[in-house]
Prior knowledge:
Organism: Streptomyces fructofermentans
Keywords: Hydrolase, Signal
CATH architecture of the largest domain: Alpha-Beta Barrel
Radius of gyration: 30 Å
Helix content: 10-25%
Domain Cellulose binding type IV: 841-962
CATH class of the largest domain: Alpha Beta
Domain Fibronectin type III-like: 752-822
Mean pLDDT: 94
Protein name: Sugar hydrolase
Oligomer: single chain
Structural class: alpha+beta
Amino acid sequence: MTAPTPPFRDAGLPFAKRIDDLLERLLPEERVAMLHQYGPAVERLGVAAFRTGQEALHGVAWTGPATVFPQAVGLGATWNEDLVRRVGEAVSAEVRAMRSRDDRVGLNVWAPTVNLLRHPLWGRNEEGYSEDPRLTSAVATAYTRGLRGDHPVYWRTAPVLKHWLAHNNETDRDTSSGSVRPRVLHEYDLRAFRATVEAGAVAGVMPAYNLVNGRPNHVSPHLREHLRGWTEQDLLVCSDAGAPSNLVDSEHYFDTHEEATAAALLAGVDSFTDHGTDSSIVVERLRGALDLGLLTGADIAAAVRRQLSVRFRLGEFDPLVDPYADTSDFDTPAHRALAREAAEQAVVLLKNDGLLPLTGADTRIAVVGLLADECKLDWYSGTLIHRSTPLEGLRERFGADRVVHAEGVDRVRLRTSAGTCLRVPGSPDAADTADTADTADTATAASTAEGARTEGALDPALIAGRTDLAPLSADGTGTELALVDWGGGVLTLRAPDGRYLSVADDGFVRASADRPGGWVVQETFRLEPLDSHGNGHLLRHLGTDRYVCVTADGVKVAGGEPEIFELEVAERGEDAVARAAAEADVVLVVAGNDPHVNGRETEDRTTLLLPSHQRRLLAAARAANPRTALVVTSSYPYAVDLADVPAALWTAHGGQAAGTALARVLAGDVSPAGRLPQTWYASDADLPDLLDYDVIGGRQTYLYFEGTPLFPFGHGLSYASFAYGGLSVHAGGRSVRVAFTVTNTGGTEADEVAQLYGRAAAPPVPRPRRELLAHRRVRLAPGATVALSFELPLSAFAFWDVARSDWRVEPGPYELLAGASSEDVRLRGTVVLDGTAATPRPVLERGLDAADFDEERGAAIVDRSRTSGDAVCPADGGEAELLFRSCDFGAGARTVTVVAAGRGTIGLRLDGGPVVARLDVPATPGPYDQVAVTAPVRVDGVRDLRLGLRGPVRLVHVGFSG
């Protein structure tokens, strides 16, 4: 007799009932085991193993060959949601196609990154879309919709947003805390996540490594207080790799792993990415938390339910009706064309004094620079199936006989103290080298997983490299090496056949890598002068932090005395560049970064400046040929002097079609229409501290920056010209309608990105100088006009009112600004909104939460308790001041009570006058052991209140009574 089909296998039942049935059938130990990233199969029920996490930021990553699209910041530069949605569709189709061949490929994709590009020195700038929350959410929503698919029930893949919350530094990223005031939290950091989640195509989020207001994001109360309230769908929260252990090991936030694991699960974490594929440690911690009464079976079931909800939506239990089960689209002509289209649309024309586009049948072009013949990958790229460098793209477009090349590297020999020079053995088969390097990179990525930490002692498992090749040696003539200084003294060394010097796990130096890469990059070195007189150098290998030695059995990074090298320069890169430039009609200097060097996950940049080596190449080209254009190919903005450069472009690393796309833009086949998704500052002096997350108080991003940027947010030129006209603004009901026209007044078909900004004309509190409200990318033939209209909800004009702890639209006039960038405003209009008038703070009824200040000086927000709430303390344990405006004391307050912890003094002043009350907070046992201290005070009416904090005191609340 055939056993009846269990309800959880019945595709005709609602998912909720099916999940209830499966949960009921799972044994307690089976439920616990599911909460690790690598959940085992439940064979008795026919339930397969499940893994959370498949990297898919701009193509399928870490699983071998796949279509590689432009970096996320490049997709952000397209300002084109339709394009980005199509990219998401292609990526998810390739995930499904790869899954059909290899069940280790996961359908729970960890993408996109919606962290805002607040600070351009952030090492992971390449992973985000924009510094603006609305643009970020628009692009992220488009990508998640593409990843999800358009079926009403089943999802093609299940996207998880990274990284919750206010994550914008790699320096001390697992121990540093950002102070995020309520206005910044709601108006900036939460906004990008919220709009994307509310759009309905998000399966979950991943908390970030860092702390916010003194509390690790993996126990953030905002997961339950905000995230889970934005949608009725079950959201799966996946931890970042190793972060659950960090709660005890590096952050010391909890004393035991059982406490930490329980706290993370109760805060909302449903899947623990920790200890790689070994689930036993996390399982034991969960069991220990259950035994200690820190968790209940219901807590475990709630987390498992959210995971099962995603699995059902992915069609795992309905293979016969899953519409995506047979997806086979992989490396299709359509995907290749889309990769090129995306790369073309991401190119931003920064400056053009008439040099571009390149025309003339006999124009001779010199393509020079460190990235002229490179197609760089980043940590979240797949392995290239196709590739196109700028040199290849230009030779294909203009003809090989018209395009010359000079890389511009220094050609050097490293001479030892014995008078010999480093020698590279003969080259192995090139194809074998490339294949092995790709395999090594993929294996390293898979072993470390998302965000694996490498602080402390070097983990040999993270060192990739070949050991079957002969190491370097030394002889009388040696080998001429290509030396590239990437800035900050970080350099790579390359053999004549293109192989990079690298170090494998046996410590020997070999020419074995086709490019720098891996979690711990083994291809970077630093030459350290022995003394100030230039008497030799030590060569430090940065991956192992050891000096290079020359021994009888070969060159290695241990096992001998550090060698003292003399650097003999055979040719300087700028000399080769100058020769090529002098023989050409036009010079293209291709500069930028290697995404694995000097700025990436785990490593922030230290400066906006283009590396000095590349500045020298640009100067040499410009001196030899005034018709020189700079092409910046990078993961982030630079500060570069373009005063004497007639043309400049920027593109993120553009994936497999980067070179072809760039050549088509330079030739004028495509008019550039990318727009900067973040501000390009003129110098490091314009930047806030990396850990200053207060975009309002610190006047950060285009929203608040009051200086003159090198290039503003939204900037980008065209080969066409556009006229704006006919602005109309109408307010009615709960929305504002804005309309205007855009006309192509040039002679070239081109895209224009019309941008609409708004600003409060007379705000009572600091508001953005202007903020993006809407945008649209449109294609126009010469002479064509398009009418654009935007329906804006009144909420688009709201700000977070700390006095009310809610959103509020201030009544009064608002300016509407339409144009081609945040600074290139073509049309202006004004609308008067009714809104809700401000009222004084009712301090007698509600008191004041310390973090709800209007302004502060020297303060930091910290955690009130390990589970919820904020407190405020002096940032350095010294002094701080908090300002609360318009406090209504009514007929009069006679006592003031502060709730605080720590130790110190709190003084009250009114309207800038003298201290009217002083409260001494005695030392408390711990930072969360709050006490109430009361003092007399005499105050009435509506007054501005200033609280002075002195010492390591943590203020939570101030109350008044009559």
